[in-house]
Amino acid sequence: TEExxxxxxAIGLFASGQMTSINVLTVLFKEHLVKExxxxxxVTAAFKAFLGEQNIDHLGSSLKKAGIDNKLLEFFxxxxxDEEYFARYFEAEEMKQLVEYHSQKQKNSMRExxxxxxxxxxxDDNNTQEVVSYLKQxxxxxxxxxxxxxxxxxxxxxxxVDWSTRPEMIENQASRQVKKxxxxxxxxxxxxxxxxxxxxxIQVYCxxxxxxxxxxxxxxxxxxxEDVVSETAIFYWYEKxxxxxxxxxxxxxxxxxxxxxxxxESESEEEDEE
Length: 274
Known about the structure:
By secondary structure, this protein is an all-alpha fold. It folds into two domains: about 90 residues, no CATH class; about 160 residues, Serine Threonine Protein Phosphatase 5, Tetratricopeptide repeat. It is built from 14 helices and no strands. Helix 5 packs antiparallel against helix 6 and helix 8 packs parallel to helix 11. The radius of gyration is 25 Å and the shape is elongated.
């Protein structure tokens, strides 16, 4: 009704100016309101008013504070409660930014679930094939690009390690984990783009987790030896693909290995010519 619409708009405006909390919308989870589509109508007007004043980040933050950021689908009647309908509906209501926000939330949630489940599988010593099968199912479900997904796989491998507090143990733990699970990484680094993405991910990871910083070269060397990344990917990373995070330190660390690879490459070329 017109009255409801005015009230919803007012709530959206007040919430955007932080004069009221958006958690007043939680009353709309009542089954009969949802079923009749009244909840959806109401939140649509409220969100529209909010987004007329503030950007999606503000709305997202308000939804999170209210604990409803992961419950947006629950405003939809049960027979319309799916991602596709959600996207179509809010796009038609000219709130594409809400669709993108929701989609990213879903993706982040799926990413986290994937990392956690793969971590558990690795810690329970599931065999490589089982882990790869699970991950292949997830990449399909999430419609991920391989170059994005290989980074998720790396996170899972690292999270599965019970890192020692003794610095001298770290090198051994890192090399063992990478070597043991190289085939899992290889399954999701089947092209140059994914190989580069993996190298970049490891660089950033070693930058953020400083205990691994000095072991970057060792990790890359193992990945090369285990045929996860090629020398071409390593050269590309070294010459123009490295990320900005501690770039100088990592390039310097990699220099001897890259030089060695170049020597090996030129020797094999000479042999081919002979």
